[in-house]
Amino acid sequence: MDIYHLTREIDASALTSFQAIMNVHEERLVLDKEVERLAAWDDGGGDALDIIYERLEAMDSATAEKRAVDILHDLGFTKKMQAKKTRDFSGGWRIRIALARVLFMNPTILILGEPTNHLDWEACVLLEEILKKFDQILVLISHSQDFLNGVCTNIIHMQNKNLKLFSYN
User: Fold this and answer.
1) What global pTM score does this model have?
2) Average pLDDT for consecutive 10-residue bins of the chain (169 residues)?
3) Are 91 and 118 in contact (CB under 8 A)?
């Protein structure tokens, strides 16, 4: 089971927003390099290559680039913006890139603390629509009741060391 806690925007770097998404799966990158190495062998890599291909298929590696582009597009990135370096984006846009990375990873449990902070209204609406479709476990901390109502099906309110469960939608 994988758990991801998004705490801040992506670092400003020379990576494009698209590259920042694609580089998130270190295992896929290592396996892609291994495929290149094994394919150069006289026997074409044999059983070892078959095992790697099975793992890449399980990771849905064949659709990785399309999924990354789709996620960035859903968060408001144009094709031109996807080729722009992360250092050339404002903090709000780098938060969107960080969100795109997390959504691309599709962790079993995603923890978001105040995800609407530093986002403009349009980005909040886009994020709400994306999180409505998130099919894993989402732990969300927010002071925005409208955002919580739009995203959550169950809410646990903690006050004075007591928990109270509410069901929505």
Assistant:
1) 0.76
2) 84 95 79 82 74 76 87 94 96 92 88 87 89 90 89 88 83
3) yes
